[in-house]
Amino acid sequence: MNEQRLIGLGPERGRIENEDDLQARVEELLRQMTPAEKAGQLTQYFYFRLPAGAVVEPALGMDSDAQPRSVEDALGRGAVGSLLFVTDPAEINRLQRLAIEGNRLGIPAMFGFDVIHGLRTIFPVPIAMAASWDVETIERGQAVAAREARAVGIHWAFAPMVDIARDPRWGRIVEGAGEDPFLGAAVAVAQVRGFQGADYGQEDRIIAGPKHFAGYGAALGGRDYDEVNLSDYELWNVIFPPFQAAVEAGAGNVMTAYMDLNGLPAGASRWLFTEVLREEWGFGGFVVSDANVVRNLVTHGLAADLQDAAARALTAGVDMEMAIQDPAYAHLPDALGTDAVSEDVVDASVRRILEAKLRLGLFDEPYVDEDHARQVLADPAHREIARVAAERAAVLLRNDGDVLPLDADRLTSLAVIGPLTDSRRDTLGPWIFDYDLDETVTVLDGIRRRVGERVRVDHAPGIPVVQRVFASMFDMFGGNRPEDPEGFDEDAEFLRAVDLAVGADAAVVVVGEWQNMIGEAASRSSLELPGRQLELMQAVVATGTPTVLLVMNGRPLDLRWAAEHVPAILDIWYPGTQGGAAVANLLFGDVSPAGKLPFTWPRTVGQVPMIYSHTRSHEPDNQGRRYWDEESTPLFPFGHGLSYGRLDYSDLVVDQQSIAPEQTVTVSVRVTNPGDRDVSDVVQLYLHQRHGSASRPVRELKGFQRVTIPAGASEQVRFIVGPEHRRYWSTTTRDWVLDDAVFDIWVGGDSTAQLTTTFNQNRHRGA
Predict the structure, then answer these.
(1) Which pLDDT tens digit goes with each residue over 695-717?
(2) Which of 20, 81, 260, 277 could bridge across to 41 with cysteines, CB 3.0–4.6 Å?
(3) What's the alpha-carbon Rg for the chain, to the nearest Å?
(4) Could you tell me where the DSSP H helices lie in 88-167?
(5) Which of 586, 552, 548, 590 is nearest to 569 (CA)?
């Protein structure tokens, strides 16, 4: 079948009109390429230009002065297929010119970047976007990110991260969608669509690169990079679904994981990248290693040397190597002279890279319009979309006595307390590099703009910033490490913060983690609030002033004391460029929070990992008493989140009480708003299979809809439960099954929903 489309080549070749023409052009280029040129197309280099005096993380193994020179030398030899870590359009144009002029066939380079939650316009961190449970908002956010990235010359995002994370000690939980594969799959699809649209060759779209295949989020002890041991049951039922969903949504790229998976480095797993990804799921894009993954096959003790590492990774199905310096794939021409790798395998990988470049239109338009880039990056509509996203991501954890929303008309003074309240860099969150601090709206900024001169807003950090025991590798980029103001007096500042609370009508305290405490290489052994934040919170609450707690975070933190003593707790995450404006709108009731937790919030680090979708196991009646010293129940359940109103759920009905395995069930529920203001909420459907060929979780999310119900109104919400929602990979049959069984359904506002009904699945129905 010929798929009709326009794909750029060079002007001397004319435009490609269909898929056959594209493949013909690929083969024409491939026939002319030497083994060294092919290896070059399979190599992606970092290009670092670090600030003067930057301290380079030793684990990166690079000379910060020599690294860019060596990359430019490789460009001049036609030995580069892709570059990453460049965002300046003028610099991208310069490097692209070197690539084209240095390549005998004029093949342009493809530029990639970590476009995780925005480029210039910074959106809430990915775990926050997942907390919106709003796929349209998520897609819209990544479409903005794609538009800005493509404008500056970036063609490919190393995102979304779709790793399931069930241990919050793992720092990269902030980059994903949390613990649940159903929610994770929906979020993955939304992000791929946002980045790529209908065709990543369009002007404002880029290639999506879901990562890290596979199992990276299950590192032992939550320690980043440590080994992972996962059963096939968990791989197929929990880890793989978001990746498969991203592939089926059309993702053009997949990235490997760093670590050992069940005793084999993931980057050398033919089972993962050939048997599962390509043969089982039909993936047609290209696979890239994560940074230095191919070289590190030697470090892992798998490969004997770099040539062996290159051969093992390529034959496993890793098309492109991401390297900082001295790539292993430079040894592929030598490996071709042995039995380690065949020319057919090399050519197959080169084809995939060339196809991507042709679909991107790089042979027609390899350079960036720098004036257009400046216009796109300054688009105010992007900031508006970011503000709405931050509003929809916030999760109201607690609101005893309806402390929120605050009434600005009744306030005369407000104390805003904590070192994170006015930190622009921390408001943005981790994993960003091209931000504009000057336009970032902090919590303090947002509140002051919202109330104007009507309310006196006093501010005090109260306590000093906290430094990591081991520095973040991202500190080398500058502006990433928090610092106290010059002359900061810790004792005096603490007392000043408490005095401000005493003299205020209400206090807003912001606690959390500084942004360099979470992300890659940012695992923690504790979930306690860093430094003296708990002490400061307790002192403010002790004044008797009504207190609102805002949590700036990317993982659950130990809030046991706050959950008992602070009446209102709002999780604002790292809310991004317009975060402070969004927070102010939430605090004063201009919008109502309706986000939901994408993970189970444990009471303490000793409980992790804690998930809602566990099996019944032995003595299920004692599930909440597994520990003798504290309840083994969460502080807040998966899917939890309040609003400034209430919705009632009733009339749960299934359209069929008994179905065959291939049939679907329509589930309907009536959702009523008895209050006097419109209410948004996420209606959630959970499923449980009572018996079958394997034990099944007590509940699993299988549907959700974010709805807004007008004051006094009622709406019927419907879900379709199909075979794809009931099938699972069984340890008994070692295959996918649809068992004859009774299924329980619950619908409500979180994973503890009580409204329930049942239906039967029977393959002999009607026989």
Answers:
(1) 999 999 999 999 999 999 999 99
(2) 81
(3) 27
(4) 89-102, 126-131, 135-152
(5) 548
